[in-house]
Amino acid sequence: AATQPSTDWHLKENAREHHTSKFSGDELVVRRGQAFTVTFNGTEQPEQSLIFIAETGPKPSKATKTLATFGISSTASTEGWSAVLQSTSSNSVSISISSPHNAVIGRYRLSVRTTASDSPSTARLGTFVLLFNPWSSGDDVFMPSKAECEEYVLEEFGIIFAGNKNHISGFGWNFGQFQGDILDICLSIMDRSLYYRQDPVTDVSHRHDPKYVGRVLSAMVNANDDQGVVLGNWSGTYEGGKNPTSWTGSGEILQNWKKSGFKPVRYGQCWVFAAVLTTVLRCLGIPTRTITNFSSAHDADGNLRVDEFYDAEGNHLERGADSIWNFHVWNESWFTRNDLGPSYSGWQVLDATPQEESGGIYQCGPASRNAIKEGEVDLEYDCPFVFAEVNADCMYWNYDSATGKKTLILSKSTEIGASISTKAVGRDDRVDVTRDYKYEEGSTKERDIFKKARKKLGLEDKFDPTAPTQEEIEQKPDISGKFKVAGSLEVGKDLNLLLVLVNLQSHAKTVDVKMTAWSTLYTRRPVREIWKDSISVTLSPKEEKQFPIKIKYNEYHQQLTTDKTIQVTAICHVEDGVQVLVQRNIALDSPAIDVQVLGEAKVNKEVDVEVVFTNPIDTEVMDCVLQVEGSDLLPGVLELRIPPLKASEKSSTKFKLVPSEAGPKHLLVNFSCDKFPDIKTFKMVNVTN
């Protein structure tokens, strides 16, 4: 082999052209279907005798499109790889290299072979990384709007929506796809998948296809099956790991996975899986965003119906595999569906949360969002599951454990899939995308699509498992009821509710009401009982009555989960009438923390930040920890311990930032103590040069 030539990869210029300036390494990162320049010396041969070799993966070959050899041509090829001479000097050559729009993405080795002399020789020029290119119209991930490319590929900050449909809240997340060695970690995630382990050559040859890459990564972000990145835990106890609510960004999770020798990071819940998948896909160049679906159905048995069971006391029973989550977070990625046709291109649903197996492993998608909206549930991949998440009908049952008898209390077809939300492009606001998933709830079009989906799933035969039998047919209730919130919903304050009951009949009714309140996870899984009570009331004809309910802070605070959610239920036993179920899921807000940047934030200059928290309760809070991160504002995650705070005491904590890049940046703050876990906020910091 010849002496190693020295190679100039023109890192700054190429990165500027390829929208890869934010990567921090010293390896060239470029996007496919677009030319980049490289200069090298040490070849004494005429340029026309140079042959370039670009190869990727363990066994490069032309057949699998993981090996390309190409000489110098006068113009760039639109088909394969090509090289065009830029300039030459006595001892160096500048070449513009172009890759095809559908090239395999990943790390390439580039070498040059000289064929002119008696002894042909090959010299290695080095390695570069090739990514998807949403700025290029020939690419499967092409996104015509520049502002959307900026948000869904280049933006490192996101807002994830949570809470419940009556009370939507959002928290910041640092995707951090350009920080440190995240790109390397993303490439190693692909090399650790089951697909790669079973057949590395075929796996690498499929990496030109965003459908394939998205599906493989939806499996790898969860730990099930393949020792993937994040281990899920929905138990309510998180010993031996970090509570899912405590993370503020993906960087720490991906770094921990690598540092531990690729052992799954403990623990995640849906938004963690979705946020990590966003980081990995944005890093590789596939436009991606997080989506929150409120009142999200987990339809385990595929009948487009979810069942919830309650006992006579009003306790929510864990029966059956179906559930309705207060919210669920998944991803949408943007690419064409050559396999389905143009009308199914655009946003595709991917979900890395391990809920149900698909093809024998925990992966989900890509499901075309247009296919979901039109009820085309027979199209690849996993459309029936996603369709159910936003459309399933809800059946509420009374279950008697002594006799095993279940009685239908009510069914709702408009409950599931509410306020589907994502962050706005270029702004820190919520955008509602429910209409992109389904037609107006309750409209005939929406019901027609539901029937079409059921038919395609073979649920329309005469033994329809979802059609109620004689004893299941809903009878008309004599009374109606609802819980109203009176006052604020904040951890540290008493919870004040009103149970409102209305007699719908023109004669008096006696009602026995059994009420319970349970702390739950955001999946509505009941964890601990907080309170129960019962009342007996007589309602005169058409009368409305209100019953105040107070659950004191000191009654609920020890039972509360870190999800800060409570389900309040009343089962009303009406004399000579059917039972009526009244329920409400309550998401409590945390007390506020205040973040101030003291002075102007300038590149490479120190600036002070102050975080203020006032203890709102009349007992001391302990184990106070402040966790801070933000891409381009500080490296990694800063953790500060804070002394205990007495009742009503105010704490002020200061720390320094040294911003590394100009522009609007986001600082994420997470304050935790024994009484108030994971109070989150974020602050936009405008950094100037």
UniProtKB/TrEMBL annotation:
Residues 9-22 have a biased composition (Basic and acidic residues). The active site is at residues 270, 328, 351. Its EC number is 2.3.2.13. It catalyses: L-glutaminyl-[protein] + L-lysyl-[protein] = [protein]-L-lysyl-N(6)-5-L-glutamyl-[protein] + NH4(+). Binds 1 Ca(2+) ion per subunit. Keywords: Acyltransferase, Calcium, Metal-binding, Transferase. GO terms for molecular function: metal ion binding; protein-glutamine gamma-glutamyltransferase activity. Residues 1-22 are annotated as: Disordered. Ca(2+) binds at residues 391, 393, 441, 446. Its cofactor is Ca(2+). Residues 262-354 form the Transglutaminase-like domain. Belongs to the transglutaminase superfamily. Transglutaminase family. This is protein-glutamine gamma-glutamyltransferase.
